[in-house]
Design brief:
The protein is mostly helical. It has one domain. Helix content is 73%, strand content 0%. The longest helix has 29 residues. The protein is elongated. The chain starts with 24 loop residues before the first helix and ends with a helix.
Length: 285
């Protein structure tokens, strides 16, 4: 007759390994942050090793500023406001929105090359790969916002509401860019290759950016299109950014209402897109 004995810890000096301690939530959080910072550093180093990609990705918003400022600006009258002061809010939002496509392309490229599988085999937080990628692109967007601020000042943007409101508008743009980056991360994980990732992302952004108050006032659009332009997420973000940058002369009404609407869009995107991207990452083979 066999007897079942309760498992006992190894006796001191017996040579048996001690059981591994159960990690606490604080240690898990600390490891997750450390892993995220490591992946962020890796992606930022990749930017420095391919400076041409960073250069040409920043040329597009500069070209849009110059194009609309000197070519189209004279043909687009804006009431009570110079066109460059009207334009810059749309350029800021457009720049970070289109720049986020790089996150989809980069993740898809890493997946295609097998790098994601290597990350999955390492003892690291599962969310670190996506959080590191989006954080690195957020840092890149900080650089883009600073660059566009300088370009705008060089072509006549006068910062009508002062530095505090302008900094608040820039922070709102960066928050919106971070929320969008998680959506681009999901696209990068579902696309079969980097070329398809770019093709998938562009048609989503194009109508949202150009059917918006970015370059023309919605009052000059057909009524149904004007309502769509103001209510869709990119349009709501542009209105909030413009209200902060320009003030009452923008003719947008309450700045607080527009800012709250933009913050709700950002929160909604984060609540939906972060779990969706992490779920897709866990299922990616």
């Amino acid at each position: 007759m066999s007897t079942i004995t309760a498992a006992r810890p190894p006796a001191p000096g017996s040579g048996a390994p001690a059981p591994a301690p159960v990690p606490t939530w604080t240690s898990r959080l600390r490891w997750g942050v450390a892993d995220t910072l490591t992946i962020t550093k890796r992606n930022l180093i990749a930017y420095t090793r391919i400076p041409e990609a960073l250069f040409f990705s920043t040329m597009q918003p500069i070209m849009f500023v110059l194009l609309f400022r000197y070519v189209f600006g004279g043909a687009i009258p804006i009431q009570h406001l110079t066109y460059i002061n009207y334009l810059m809010a749309g350029i800021f939002v457009q720049s970070v929105a289109f720049g986020g496509i790089g996150a989809a392309v980069g993740l898809s490229d890493d997946l295609q090359k097998g790098l994601i599988e290597r990350f999955r085999a390492l003892p690291m937080a599962r969310s670190a790969v996506l959080a590191g990628r989006t954080t690195a692109d957020l840092v890149r967007n900080v650089f883009v916002v600073l660059l566009m601020t300088g370009v705008g000042a060089a072509v006549g943007f006068t910062f009508p509401t002062g530095p505090v409101d302008f900094i608040a508008s820039a922070a709102l743009v960066l928050l919106f860019s971070y929320a969008l980056l998680w959506g681009f991360a999901f696209i990068g994980l579902v696309a079969p290759n980097s070329e398809t990732a770019q093709v998938m992302a562009f048609p989503i952004l194009f109508p949202l950016v150009f059917a918006s108050p970015a370059f023309v006032q919605t009052s000059k659009m057909p009524a149904w299109l004007g309502r769509f332009a103001n209510d869709q997420p990119v349009g709501a973000m542009i209105n909030a950014t413009r209200a902060l940058m320009v003030g009452p002369r923008a003719g947008l009404g309450s700045t607080g209402d527009h800012v709250v609407t933009a913050l709700l869009w950002c929160a909604g995107f984060l609540v939906v897109l972060v779990p969706l991207a992490v779920w897709r990452y866990r299922r990616t083979a």
